[in-house]
Amino acid sequence: MDAAMRITVLLGGNLRNEAGEGCQEFEVELRPGSQVEDLLPRLGLPQDRIKMIMVNGRGATLHTEISEGDRVALFPPELAFNTFVSLGFRKESVERRGKGKQSA
User: 5-78 maps to which CATH number?
Assistant: First the structure.
């Protein structure tokens, strides 16, 4: 059997309570080659409670492979839209600042 890899999991909203975790961020060991969907049973979370997934700050799916040291963030349906909108505003703000620097 391959050695386990360690990843950091961040749970948004009520997922912390549903997973029985008191903290927002914690480490989990998985087998190498695992996908996000392999993480959910370890956390006791059904797939329908996950609406938005990010791996290392980038959008991901249940079939995204995760690697040693990755940061996996999971958001429930009731929080995903707000998170999506916030990230969109942040991206636009960063792009505007970048364009301003180029024209200076």
Answer: 3.10.20.30
